[in-house]
Amino acid sequence: MFQVRWSNGKWLRALALSACAAACHTDEPSSAPPTEKQAEAAAENKQPVVDQKIASAMAAAQREGAPLGAEPGQPAPPADGVLSAEAAARELAPGSAAQLVVGGDGSSPKLSLGPARLAAGTGPSGVLQLSSRTGGSVMPTIDFELKSKTSPAPAAAAPALAPGATPAAAAAPGAGVDSVVTRFTLQSARPAAQQPGRLPDEARAEIAKLKGSTIDFVTGPHGAVQSQHYQAAGNSRDLEPFVQSSAQALSSIALPYPAVPVGVGAFWMVKSRETVQGAEAMVYRMVKVTGLTGDVAQLTLNIRRYLIGTTLQLEGLPPHHVRQFQSEGDGTLSVRAGATYPSSAQLQDRFMALVAPDENPTQGMPIQSELSATLTLAP
Hints:
Blueprint: E1 3-4, H1 36-44, H2 52-63, E2 82-83, H3 85-91, E3 99-104, E4 121-134, E5 137-138, E6 142-152, E7 180-191, H4 203-208, E8 214-219, E9 225-231, H5 240-253, E10 267-276, E11 279-293, E12 296-308, E13 320-336, E14 344-357, E15 365-378
Parallel strand pairs: 1-5, 2-12
Antiparallel strand pairs: 3-10, 4-5, 4-6, 4-15, 6-7, 7-8, 8-9, 10-11, 11-12, 12-13, 13-14, 14-15
């Protein structure tokens, strides 16, 4: 049975460290060894990186009859899940808005998803429920009440585009270059009705201190994310892991949408740079329309992330380099035509890294975590 971790009223400061610190070993995680060609491609990083799972999903959709818009013959992803800064910049320059590639627009009937243009004002509000675990340790399941507001972004937040790159926002007719900031504020936080274990008496008061924490997304006028930032209430380092997990869940559903109407069978890929476990990552999302009910589309997500650089920004980790990195997720979304965010979503996320301390590079410290999120939003 898992045990809810709590120590003198203080939260775990690093979501994925406590259960792993005593489990260090020198073995690599079990996986098939890369082929010689894969190793060469991973070492050189001279070509775009397309995750094999996403590429396979796009190929499967193509076999079902949808035309494929992505380039064929992409190389295998890096075997260790790690990209150099130079390779990442070739994929997507720092500060660039998320980019979208449409594989097919599906069958009729069709809906136009995404907003015509984001405008300043009050945004959707709702409830986000989060639960997470690290190895044998489980964090409290928390219900957050969210409220959002969109404002014009400072000029410094405008996207930086790589030569020849086309952000997802520019795919829409009449798209401008104006950026906006959507801020999600945690209006309240409380323990969920169902918990994985008994919480101590002071849990409710500690969880309530998350009230006022914020999560910001800087996007283009049509919702393509170009940067994100979160802030725990009172700059509390003990509360930060919960806000970080909330930001990760919200970033998974902060999607741009095709400029053309889409129907069942439509699929597209979104490429973006985001923060995962405090470190920058290149993220690929495969999105597919699986159903239409009136003006609501049901979508599936397949998410894969690659670490940019060789270090994680988790408190308590010694100087180190990452030997293996795996981060992936999946989910289902219900999105109303013209809405910026889904009305409901369910997400599962998994993270694993093998870290070698600089003072003992032959040692392998495994770090693992899982995150589940349920979200409901209303205009």
